[in-house]
Amino acid sequence: MRIAYPPALTPVVVASPHSGMHYPAAFLETVRLDLAMLRRSEDCFVDSLLADAPACGAPLIAATFPRVFCDVNRAKWELDPAMFDGRLPVDAITDSPKLRAGFGMMARRAGPGRDIYRKPLPVAEAAYRQTMFWQPYHDALRSLIDRALDLFGRCLLLDGHSMPKSPFRNAPDIVLGDAHGTACDPRLVAIVENALRARNYTVARNNPYAGGYVTRHYGRPHFGVHVLQIEISRSLYMDEETLLPLPSFERVRHDLTSVMAEVVDAAEAMHALGLGKSVGRSIPGAA
Predict the structure, then answer these.
(1) 159: Cβ–Cβ under 8 A, 6 or more apart, which residues?
(2) Distance between CA atoms of 285 and 135, rounded to whole angstroms?
(3) CA 28 – CA 38 distance, rounded (Å)
(4) What is the per-residue pLDDT across 160-216, written as a single tens digit (0 to 9) for each?
(5) Which secondary structure element, helix H or strand E, spans residue 109, and what is its range?
(6) Which of 80, 147, 174, 221 is 20 to 30 A removed from 110 (C-alpha atoms)?
(7) Distance from C-alpha of 59 to C-alpha of 68, rounded to nearest angstrom
(8) 3-class DSSP state of 119
(9) Partner residues linked to 157 by β-bridges
């Protein structure tokens, strides 16, 4: 995990939880898929697309470990019991749409029909990944959110992701997820959407991505915390077969930098819009 800080803090935090590329050697020894196949699950280059966030006034937190190893956009004990040799804790989440698809905190699959592991894992492995990877990421993210709350009484978290090219005609370039209006004030969503549309991107809301664990867990507008998930089509900036950037990469990065700058300006005016809460108020029950 790495965090880049701006010269002066604003109410905005930017995150890239799925762009990590460091695959632990011990993990690779347990899998049946080669590295090229595992890498297709990454949100490739999203951290690079958002790398100018600190220059715009927002800290950038990025996971360096891959999502197939530890997915911080899932609940801590959201795990498929069939993956493990032993019993999960009684409070584990063992059934959810994401788990049925193979994508828990520890993924069972790297994509449709691509099972990751050769054999069941010890439950202790799940506890290790939570303690050493999942929890530190959320502790750091929570600290950035709390700092914004302490300083400004409000926070806007932009959670950056990428999505594979859709087979459907007229699919959007970018999908904004606010958990169907519950995680972010609609005025902030409109600011982001309008800024993207002004740069000729087609934008949809909540379909097919409404936001994962981070959006739903931290997004509490009534406590001054607004979270917006941003899914960017990989076809805009990379070759999905070679996993290499396209010539259009720099244009997309430049556009997202200018969008982030607009959003930071808007977020700094959140108090005047009545979107903030009392300074120092923290999120109850957060990780």
Answers:
(1) 15, 17, 73, 211, 212, 214, 215, 227, 228, 229, 230
(2) 14
(3) 10
(4) 999 998 888 889 999 999 999 999 999 999 999 999 999 999 999 999 999 999 999
(5) none
(6) 174
(7) 25
(8) coil
(9) 13, 227
**Length of the chain (residues):** 287
Question: What is the model's pLDDT at position 280?
Answer: 46
Whether a cis peptide bond, with omega within 30° of 0, leads into 208 is yes
Position 238: which residue type? M
The Cα 154–Cα 11 span in angstroms is: 6
Task: Show the domains of the chain with their CATH numbers.
Answer: 2-268 (3.40.630.40)
Q: What type of residue sits at position 270?
A: M
Identify the helix (H) or strand (E) that includes residue 22: none
Does residue 179 come out as left (phi exceeding 0), alpha (psi in the -120 to 50 range) or beta? left
Q: Average pLDDT by consecutive 10-residue portion of the chain (287 residues)?
A: 93 97 96 95 97 97 98 97 95 94 95 90 97 98 96 94 89 98 96 98 97 97 96 97 97 98 86 55 59
Query: What is the distance between the alpha carbons of residues 152 and 58, in angstroms, rounded to a whole number?
Result: 13
Report pLDDT for 278.
45
For residue 158, give Cα distances in angstroms to 17, 101, 106, 276. 11, 25, 23, 16
